[in-house]
Amino acid sequence: MMWWYGPGMNGWGYALMTVSTVLLWSLIILGVIALVRYLARSGRPTATRPTPEQLLAERFARGEIDEQEYHQRLATLRDRPRPFVEP
Fold it and tell me: Which of left, alpha, beta for 80 (phi over 0: left; psi -120 to 50: alpha)?
């Protein structure tokens, strides 16, 4: 009988096959988990925080502050540069 590629697979061949199979299945499982998490996250709406101007307007609408205080605080908010916060 003639052996084309040697006498068969030795211990290193079995080890390499085992490691590559475990890595393949790990990548498949991690890919499925990442896909499920992405789909679950993109389906729900993101919570948006109200801006300081909106909070001030709500306080004015509830009657907690008067018109003069509202305009004074609004001018203070608009005069001061605000840092950019990424949502």
Answer: beta
Percent of the chain having pLDDT more than 70? 75
Q: Is-contact 87 46, C-beta < 8 A?
A: yes
Amino acid letter for position 8: G
> pLDDT tens for residues 17-55?
999 999 999 999 999 999 999 888 876 666 678 888 999
Residue type, 37: R
Domain coordinates in residue numbering, the chain? 12-42, 49-81
